[in-house]
Task: inverse folding
């Protein structure tokens, strides 16, 4: 059981809210840099190590710029994510393009930016060739789906056989041969087999699978991989009872597999890549929202000014996000509430039956761990407008890095005349 501490005090939050009304997502620059440095230190033993931050988790250029300063690349999977990466200055092999069901135009764009293209399927080789004028880029990566169940020990982590991603094992061999024959020279191998894992074994077990596959592929095709991409999937301690991941231990576990499998096979120069999103950003962001109502019916409700449009994970996955009532950190949690937003959907609940201190109207609630897959999953259902994003800089000042949406934004795509929205 750990105590989940906000990176903001009540006083700081009220000061920010005086200028930028709630709700807002706020990110902690110091925490982001610290996380990136810990990851890079954990894999410093691998000369080519690079984290390609999964842009979809937090697609804000100011955040991406901080990560780039810490040596990270960008993992993109759409046209606009590529545009974002370019705008921040990521170029060439600083960009990984890990998409699926990819339109030809996006391969063309990614190739134009010099990105490393990660192929989700063998049939995409033809799409890529069409996009690149008949050939393929010199460097290319293939995504592997081993099928079956993905187990660690006797525990089933996920079901790759039901996942739409990646190539089968025979397809992988065939794809390497085809790509080799049409001119690819540097090969990568990628897999993403479980999300939000909380075991130090995830990366090492995944690494073992990919390393063994790389050795087999070398025997079968003569192709020595240049890099292995362990992708995303390292989780965070959303719940107080979760143990935070020990990234140093994860790095050591991967090193052990590397030295046991790749080095003896003559693949000791292989670079390791990651595409972490959640691990990098989730704990370094929070959603700050104000209690605006209380309601006493069959249950006790606290209504807040944020809703699932600002943070979809609880409604979508039943995900737990810890809540701290700012300024009441030391009060006993002797009330049980549902903390709810204003959508006309009964799953719009940030917390259900949650023990919290007594909440009064006007209190600021700090919803933890929203820095990844938080604002970025936002939407406009019920005509709700997406919140602002704010950066808490290392010197304690704040910067508005995305303003809140206005009704004008909401109506801007209605390409019609003759209506007035006021
Ligand atoms: C979503 C995604 C990631 C990031 O996943 P996290 O769970 O945020 O670490 C990385 N790579 C790919 C291809 C993804 O789709």
Result:
């Amino acid at each position: 059981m750990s105590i989940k501490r906000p990176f903001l005090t009540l006083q700081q939050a009220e000061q920010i809210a005086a200028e930028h009304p709630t709700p807002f997502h706020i990110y902690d620059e110091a925490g982001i840099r610290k996380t990136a440095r810990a990851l890079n230190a954990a894999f410093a033993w691998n000369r080519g190590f690079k984290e390609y931050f999964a842009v979809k988790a937090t697609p804000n250029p100011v955040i991406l710029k901080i990560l780039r300063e810490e040596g990270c690349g960008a993992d993109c999977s759409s046209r606009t994510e590529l545009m974002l990466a370019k705008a921040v200055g990521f170029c060439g092999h600083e960009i990984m393009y890990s998409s699926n069901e990819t339109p030809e135009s996006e391969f063309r764009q990614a190739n134009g930016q010099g990105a490393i293209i990660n192929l989700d399927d063998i049939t995409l080789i033809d799409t890529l060739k069409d996009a690149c004028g008949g050939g393929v880029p010199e460097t290319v990566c293939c995504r592997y789906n081993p099928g079956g169940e993905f187990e660690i020990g006797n525990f089933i982590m996920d079901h790759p056989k039901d996942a739409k991603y990646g190539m089968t094992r025979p397809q992988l061999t065939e794809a390497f041969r085809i790509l080799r024959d049409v001119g690819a020279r540097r090969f990568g191998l990628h897999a993403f087999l479980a999300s939000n894992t909380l075991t130090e074994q995830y990366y090492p077990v995944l690494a073992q699978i990919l390393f063994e596959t790389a050795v087999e592929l070398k025997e079968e095709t003569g192709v020595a991989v240049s890099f292995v991409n362990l992708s995303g999937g390292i989780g965070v301690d959303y719940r107080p009872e979760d143990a935070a991941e020990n990234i140093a231990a994860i790095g050591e576990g991967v090193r052990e597999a590397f030295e046991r499998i790749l080095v003896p096979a003559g693949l000791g120069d292989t670079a390791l890549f990651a595409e972490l999103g959640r691990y990098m950003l989730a704990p370094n962001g929070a959603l700050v929202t104000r209690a605006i109502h209380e309601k006493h019916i069959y249950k006790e409700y606290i209504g807040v000014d944020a809703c699932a449009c600002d943070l979809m994970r609880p409604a979508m996955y039943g995900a737990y996000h810890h809540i701290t009532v700012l300024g009441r950190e030391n009060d006993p949690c002797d009330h049980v509430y549902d903390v709810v937003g204003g959508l006309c959907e009964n799953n719009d609940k940030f917390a259900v039956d949650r023990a919290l201190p007594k909440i009064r109207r006007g209190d600021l609630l700090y919803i933890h761990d929203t820095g990844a897959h938080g604002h970025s999953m936002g939407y406009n259902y019920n005509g709700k407008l997406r919140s602002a994003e704010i950066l808490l800089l290392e010197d304690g000042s704040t910067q508005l890095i995305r303003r809140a949406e206005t009704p004008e934004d909401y109506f801007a795509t209605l390409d019609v005349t003759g209506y007035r929205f006021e």
Notes: The chain has a mean pLDDT of 97. The pocket of pyridoxal-5'-phosphate is lined by residues 54, 56-57, 75, 98, 192, 195, 231-233, 275-279, 372 (CB under 6 Å).
